């Protein structure tokens, strides 16, 4: 990292990592003369961005202590000066079978900080009582866990729109709506000077920050480092009376299979799976090569923007439905189908750690991605952390976690962070083919 402040910074992506980085840069006096541009392929709020949704869990409940620490700081902001109108502190029940180590490790980390109100749930009866579950199927409720009454959820799209307005008020950032085709790489000097757009134009900058979420792997070679995985989300309309009861209950997250239900809002109930996800192997021109014939295959998002008729495959919808049947059978009757489903694309890393690092090969390129399905809750603080890393001041407890990995590890050998459940190795196109005639 050079000590000189870049005269221009280009942020690729206006999701949680990109927008919060722009916000953090705007608030620092040392960047007052830096031109800041944010480019995204879609109009804001990006309809298929992983940070745009009805709800996201806000929790410090992590098996890795550094994330508990940082999420606790973020929580304080959610409660006070960061989009507090979109934050709902209704609690989170982290549950599972007896085999779930993540549950006990997470509870220990939360209790060590001592800022949260927790209650151990030693049986499925305890879980049903605390979460207000009507069903008695232990597959749904889990048999052990705890509730953190200080956790909750946020209206994700509402918070992103709030942050975008805060950034726009500062009048410092130029927002560009355009698709990025590739990085401008000078291979002789191994320097990145900006991006080439799909429309043929170029955006140049001293420093390019890639924060394109699950699309980042289309712009640099992230094989063995990051991959895009699609997660199932299903929605169901709910009555005012049902919402008034369920909205006061904690979110239930069952780590044995990754299924969870967030309290309903605005007449909509959401059931989803934080699992191993679907991969979408896609062969593309090598993003770092000037040879159009050199190609690589990586998992990339395929969304309802690409195909407006896209739904979650039958397998995913059935699992969400089975979960709802087991915890709230009255909501899961045949006369009440899911009316909408979508695939949310995570940027997974081998162990759930973010990738916030200068590129080891190219000068002028910084990468901020790898949210691994748990980045959004850090929205109030992640931009500050990213800027600290840009300045060579990586937070002490994240050293060795956020850096560029020393080696690439084949995806089938990734250990994960212990928080994922459900089927492994699903390919989106195969699951879609199996779904024909069933949906």
From TrEMBL:
The keyword Nuclease does not apply. Keywords: FAD, Flavoprotein, Oxidoreductase. SUPFAM superfamilies: FAD/NAD(P)-binding domain. GO terms for molecular function: flavin adenine dinucleotide binding; L-pipecolate oxidase activity; proline dehydrogenase activity; sarcosine oxidase activity. Its cofactor is FAD. It holds the Pfam family DAO. InterPro entries: FAD-dep_OxRdtase, FAD/NAD-bd_sf, MTOX. Residues 9-387 form the FAD dependent oxidoreductase domain. Gene3D superfamilies: D-Amino Acid Oxidase, subunit A, domain 2, FAD/NAD(P)-binding domain. It comes from the Eukaryota. Belongs to the MSOX/MTOX family. This is FAD dependent oxidoreductase. It comes from Paraphoma chrysanthemicola. The lineage of its organism: Eukaryota, Fungi, Dikarya, Ascomycota, Pezizomycotina.
